[in-house]
Protein backbone atom coordinates (compact mmCIF):
# COMPACT_ATOMS: atom_id res chain seq x y z
CA UNK A 1 0.00 0.00 0.00
CA UNK A 2 1.59 3.22 -1.10
CA UNK A 3 1.31 6.57 0.66
CA UNK A 4 -0.60 8.28 -2.18
CA UNK A 5 -3.66 5.96 -1.77
CA UNK A 6 -6.67 7.47 -0.10
CA UNK A 7 -8.19 5.98 3.02
CA UNK A 8 -11.18 4.75 1.01
CA UNK A 9 -8.93 3.00 -1.51
CA UNK A 10 -6.95 1.38 1.32
CA UNK A 11 -10.15 0.26 3.03
CA UNK A 12 -11.50 -1.13 -0.25
CA UNK A 13 -8.27 -2.99 -0.92
CA UNK A 14 -8.24 -4.32 2.62
CA UNK A 15 -11.85 -5.51 2.29
CA UNK A 16 -11.04 -7.14 -1.06
CA UNK A 17 -8.05 -9.00 0.41
CA UNK A 18 -10.16 -10.09 3.38
CA UNK A 19 -12.84 -11.44 1.03
CA UNK A 20 -10.22 -13.29 -1.05
CA UNK A 21 -8.76 -14.91 2.09
CA UNK A 22 -12.26 -15.91 3.19
CA UNK A 23 -12.98 -17.50 -0.20
CA UNK A 24 -9.63 -19.29 -0.15
CA UNK A 25 -10.33 -20.72 3.31
CA UNK A 26 -13.76 -21.89 2.15
CA UNK A 27 -12.24 -23.54 -0.94
CA UNK A 28 -9.60 -25.30 1.19
CA UNK A 29 -12.31 -26.48 3.59
CA UNK A 30 -14.31 -27.94 0.70
CA UNK A 31 -11.16 -29.60 -0.68
CA UNK A 32 -10.33 -31.17 2.72
CA UNK A 33 -13.91 -32.41 3.04
CA UNK A 34 -13.76 -33.95 -0.44
CA UNK A 35 -10.43 -35.67 0.32
CA UNK A 36 -11.87 -37.05 3.56
CA UNK A 37 -14.93 -38.36 1.73
CA UNK A 38 -12.66 -40.04 -0.82
CA UNK A 39 -10.77 -41.79 1.99
CA UNK A 40 -13.90 -43.17 3.66
CA UNK A 41 -14.72 -46.70 2.58
CA UNK A 42 -18.23 -46.58 1.18
CA UNK A 43 -18.54 -50.38 0.97
CA UNK A 44 -18.06 -51.85 4.47
CA UNK A 45 -18.63 -55.35 3.09
CA UNK A 46 -15.65 -55.06 0.74
CA UNK A 47 -14.11 -58.14 2.35
CA UNK A 48 -16.38 -60.20 0.11
CA UNK A 49 -14.10 -59.30 -2.81
CA UNK A 50 -11.27 -61.44 -1.44
CA UNK A 51 -13.50 -64.09 0.13
CA UNK A 52 -14.02 -65.62 -3.31
CA UNK A 53 -11.64 -68.18 -4.75
CA UNK A 54 -10.39 -65.77 -7.42
CA UNK A 55 -9.87 -63.07 -4.77
CA UNK A 56 -7.86 -65.48 -2.63
CA UNK A 57 -5.70 -66.36 -5.66
CA UNK A 58 -5.02 -62.68 -6.30
CA UNK A 59 -4.00 -62.12 -2.67
CA UNK A 60 -1.71 -65.17 -2.71
CA UNK A 61 0.05 -63.76 -5.79
CA UNK A 62 0.89 -60.62 -3.77
CA UNK A 63 2.67 -62.61 -1.04
CA UNK A 64 6.48 -62.50 -0.99
CA UNK A 65 7.69 -65.98 -0.17
CA UNK A 66 11.29 -66.00 1.16
CA UNK A 67 13.98 -67.92 -0.66
CA UNK A 68 16.02 -70.57 1.13
CA UNK A 69 18.89 -68.10 1.55
CA UNK A 70 16.62 -65.40 3.03
CA UNK A 71 15.05 -67.95 5.36
CA UNK A 72 18.46 -69.18 6.51
CA UNK A 73 19.73 -65.64 7.15
CA UNK A 74 16.59 -64.65 9.06
CA UNK A 75 16.72 -67.85 11.13
CA UNK A 76 20.39 -67.19 11.91
CA UNK A 77 19.60 -63.67 13.10
CA UNK A 78 16.80 -64.96 15.35
CA UNK A 79 19.06 -67.67 16.77
CA UNK A 80 21.93 -65.22 17.38
CA UNK A 81 19.67 -62.74 19.19
CA UNK A 82 18.16 -65.54 21.26
CA UNK A 83 21.62 -66.65 22.39
CA UNK A 84 22.80 -63.08 23.06
CA UNK A 85 19.71 -62.14 25.05
CA UNK A 86 19.81 -65.44 26.94
CA UNK A 87 23.41 -64.76 27.97
CA UNK A 88 22.52 -61.17 28.93
CA UNK A 89 19.61 -62.23 31.15
CA UNK A 90 21.68 -65.05 32.70
CA UNK A 91 24.50 -62.61 33.50
CA UNK A 92 22.05 -60.01 34.86
CA UNK A 93 20.46 -62.63 37.10
CA UNK A 94 23.88 -63.73 38.32
CA UNK A 95 24.93 -60.14 39.13
CA UNK A 96 21.68 -59.47 40.99
CA UNK A 97 22.10 -62.74 42.93
CA UNK A 98 25.66 -61.70 43.91
CA UNK A 99 24.48 -58.29 45.08
CA UNK A 100 21.67 -59.81 47.14
CA UNK A 101 24.08 -62.39 48.60
CA UNK A 102 26.55 -59.60 49.51
CA UNK A 103 23.76 -57.72 51.26
CA UNK A 104 22.73 -60.88 53.12
CA UNK A 105 19.27 -60.97 51.63
CA UNK A 106 19.62 -64.44 50.14
TrEMBL record:
Record membrane topology: Single-pass membrane protein
Entry GO terms, CC: plasma membrane
Subcellular location(s) per record: Cell membrane; Membrane
One Pfam family in the UniProt entry: SecE
GO biological process: intracellular protein transmembrane transport; protein secretion; protein targeting; protein transport by the Sec complex
Gene3D superfamilies listed in its UniProt record: Preprotein translocase secy subunit (1.20.5.1030)
Coiled-coil residue spans: 7-39
Signal peptide: none
UniProt keyword list: Cell membrane, Coiled coil, Membrane, Protein transport, Translocation, Transmembrane, Transmembrane helix, Transport
GO molecular function, one term: protein transmembrane transporter activity
Transmembrane segments: 77-100
Superkingdom: Bacteria
Keyword Cell membrane among record annotations: yes
Family membership: Belongs to the SecE/SEC61-gamma family.
Subunit structure: Component of the Sec protein translocase complex. Heterotrimer consisting of SecY, SecE and SecG subunits. The heterotrimers can form oligomers, although 1 heterotrimer is thought to be able to translocate proteins. Interacts with the ribosome. Interacts with SecDF, and other proteins may be involved. Interacts with SecA.
Functional description taken from the UniProt entry: Essential subunit of the Sec protein translocation channel SecYEG. Clamps together the 2 halves of SecY. May contact the channel plug during translocation.
Name by which UniProt lists this protein: Protein translocase subunit SecE
